[in-house]
Amino acid sequence: MAEERILVVDDEEDLCEILQFNLEQAGYIVDVAYSAEEVLKQDNLSSYQLFMLDVMMGEISGFKLGTILRKNEATEKIPIIYLTAKDTETDKLRGFSIGADDYISKPYSINEVLARVKAVLKRTSGAISAPASKNELPTTNQSDILVYNDLRINLINKTTFIGEEEINLTKKEFELLSLFLQCKNRVLSREQLLESIWKGESNVLDRTIDVNITRLRKKIKPYDKNLVTKQGYGYIFTEK
Questions:
Q1: 142-237 architecture in CATH?
Q2: Per-residue pLDDT tens for 169-222?
């Protein structure tokens, strides 16, 4: 198999060594860094096919580092796996909202890590490519498409289809549906939805969420039945 390059970032040196050894045994090329600051000094970050980040690190957290990597044109498409003891639903949602491809809670088994690394690299293969020439447009890849049966969301051109029919969603409806599909079978509280979709906006009421959910349900039939209200908890997009 091709030798994918992985960068492991964790301030616990023992964990870095264990991950490096086992990932190299599995055939990957692995570098380690012990802080986000160390990572940001590197000038070859685009050479990696995967970043594995701890969350709680020094002055710059893994979440902050992930945000920086996602805003950098050279690294925006490189998948990120978070490896962390911060395993609450809110933490996981924040990681995925940044653009994480997976989130593994500590303590973890090496076999689980290897399986998830393999799955992420397989899913995102082709997402990282050389910069396009002046006359060449970038192509959409699998990681830019969210799919549930014949419901498809394209995160690049912001379109939504059910079968062959394009569904006209507002910006907030599109962001809500995208978040629900990325967090299938997970209850999202009103607070989490407000933080992810309406972050920084003032005077946003709980009723605003209800109105947008109601409109969204009407537009995505028959999948309105998958978007379920969990009384007292929030909403969930269920595959059942």
A1: Orthogonal Bundle (1.10)
A2: 898 899 899 888 888 888 888 888 887 887 766 566 667 888 889 999 999 999
Going along the chain, which residue ranges are E strands?
Answer: 5-9, 29-33, 50-53, 80-84, 102-105, 145-148, 151-154, 159-162, 165-167, 227-230, 234-237
Query: What pairs with residue 53 in β-bridges?
Result: 9, 82
Give the Cα separation of 216 and 218 in Å (integer): 5
* pTM passes above 0.70: no
Domain ranges (residues) in the chain: 5-124, 142-237
The CA angle 107-111-115, to the nearest 5 degrees, is 110
Which residue's structure tokens are 């609450």?
88
Helix 190-197, helix 89-98: angle, nearest 10: 20
Residue-wise pLDDT for 100-129, tens only, equals 888 888 778 888 889 889 888 887 775 444
Do residues 151 and 161 make contact, with C-beta atoms less than 8 angstroms apart? yes
Q: 178 Cβ partners below 8 Å, 6+ apart?
A: 146, 153, 155
Long-range contacts: 192-201, Cβ < 8 Å, 24+? 192/89, 192/90, 192/93, 192/234, 193/234, 193/235, 195/93, 195/94, 196/93, 196/97, 197/172, 198/172
User: CA–CA distance from 205 to each of 90, 92, 209 (Å)?
Assistant: 20, 24, 7
What CATH architecture is 5-124? 3-Layer(aba) Sandwich (3.40)
Which one-letter DSSP state was computed for residue 100? -
Query: Tokens at residue 240, please?
Result: 């059942």
